[in-house]
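Students often ask why inverse folding is considered easier than folding. One informal answer: many sequences map to the same fold, so there is more than one right answer. In these notes we will look at a single instance of the problem. The structure comes first.
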């Protein structure tokens, strides 16, 4: 009898402990990390390219429903080869999950009142897709959700496309009234972001002989943008430039620097000078010691590991007669970068605003009804008023 009672009490205690652990681990605050994503295997490349080439937020093509799939199909084998050369797939999900895990651990210590925090990844063109992520977020019973762009500098083509995908998800779906939403759509001049880029530059400067270290040309490189978008008023170019200025101010070294642009797609004119052209031009000028700094990317992916490392630093630099070229690492899991993420989110959770006036302002020459309706959606989603029974039509 006594043994039976002890066993029963032991079972009750274990069940109680399990329930307590489950309750304790239930996330209260979601940090939704937005990014483009990249195929984890070469088998995903075709579908990945198809989604990019048919997304008019990302790129505008004539008769896009036909031309987009055709371009994607034509490029698939070439892009597959590039992914094979960097290990068979993109590491962006690995890095984002690692960053998210480290971020939420830091937030749990900094803000116990909003803990436990849980990170969610919402990619635009590969799993985990936006729809899947927000479905899971709702199932988890989240009380507060911070939509956090992993593009520090805002562009309608990148962050804007991801935000439009969230608006699309709720277009014919009831907005959950029990979740308090807010968003961080840009953070280009955060001092710790500038500091981590500074540290990455210093790591590479150490590889140069001390006699010429102060003369090494620092080339900040970012994904280019069609001039049509620039003329419309997209804020991306000046936000990238602001990150460059903040980094050089933090670096406090006499090295010359320039901002250049990479990854042009299609026949239309894009922001210049292009990174590859600049490398060749500087070599002709006698500038043969260079550092490339991917200033708009927070983790390694195809455009750093292949375009910069293989196509530019190995092949092009050799052809152009460059003596030494180094490529600064992306922030990845650098402790200063994790501190930057945590500080951005903690200040947002503490002081807001839930949606910025900068985001709600449209470009001066914007004629997109999709953009207009998306901004109106987020104004409502992040408002202080009750969202009960609201749908986005």
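Output (designed amino acids):
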């Amino acid at each position: 009898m006594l043994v039976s009672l002890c066993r029963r009490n032991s079972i009750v205690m274990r069940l109680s402990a399990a329930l307590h652990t489950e309750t304790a681990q239930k996330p209260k605050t979601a940090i939704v990390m937005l990014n483009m994503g990249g195929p984890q295997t070469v088998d995903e490349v075709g579908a990945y390219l198809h989604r990019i080439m048919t997304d008019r937020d990302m790129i505008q093509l004539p008769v896009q429903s036909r031309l987009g799939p055709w371009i994607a199909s034509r490029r698939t084998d070439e892009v597959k080869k590039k992914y094979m050369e960097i290990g068979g797939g993109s590491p962006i999900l690995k890095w984002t999950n690692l960053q998210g895990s480290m971020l939420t651990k830091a937030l749990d210590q900094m803000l116990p009142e909003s803990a436990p925090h849980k990170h969610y990844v919402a990619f635009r063109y590969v799993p985990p897709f936006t729809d899947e992520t927000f479905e899971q977020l709702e199932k988890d019973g989240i009380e507060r959700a911070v939509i956090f762009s992993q593009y520090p500098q805002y562009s309608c083509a990148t962050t804007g496309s991801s935000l439009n995908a969230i608006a699309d998800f709720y277009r014919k779906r009831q907005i959950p009234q029990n979740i308090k939403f807010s968003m961080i759509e840009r953070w280009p001049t955060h001092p710790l972001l500038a500091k981590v880029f500074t540290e990455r530059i210093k790591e590479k400067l150490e590889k140069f002989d001390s006699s010429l270290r102060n003369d090494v040309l620092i080339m900040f490189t970012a994904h280019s943008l069609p001039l049509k978008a620039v003329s419309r008023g997209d804020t991306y170019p000046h936000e990238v430039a602001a990150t460059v200025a903040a980094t050089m101010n933090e670096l406090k070294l006499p090295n010359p620097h320039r901002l250049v642009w990479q990854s042009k797609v299609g026949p239309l004119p894009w922001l210049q000078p292009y990174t590859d052209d600049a490398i060749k031009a500087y070599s002709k000028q006698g500038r043969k010691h260079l550092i490339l700094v991917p200033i708009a990317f927070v983790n390694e992916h195809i455009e750093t590991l292949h375009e910069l490392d293989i196509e530019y630093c190995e092949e092009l630099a050799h052809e152009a007669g460059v003596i030494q070229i180094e490529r600064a690492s992306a922030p990845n899991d650098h402790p200063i970068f994790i501190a930057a993420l945590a500080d951005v989110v903690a200040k947002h959770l503490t002081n807001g605003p839930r949606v910025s006036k900068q985001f709600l302002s449209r470009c001066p020459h914007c004629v997109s009804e999709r953009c207009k309706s998306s901004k109106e959606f987020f104004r409502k989603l992040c408002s202080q008023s009750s969202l009960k029974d609201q749908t986005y039509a």
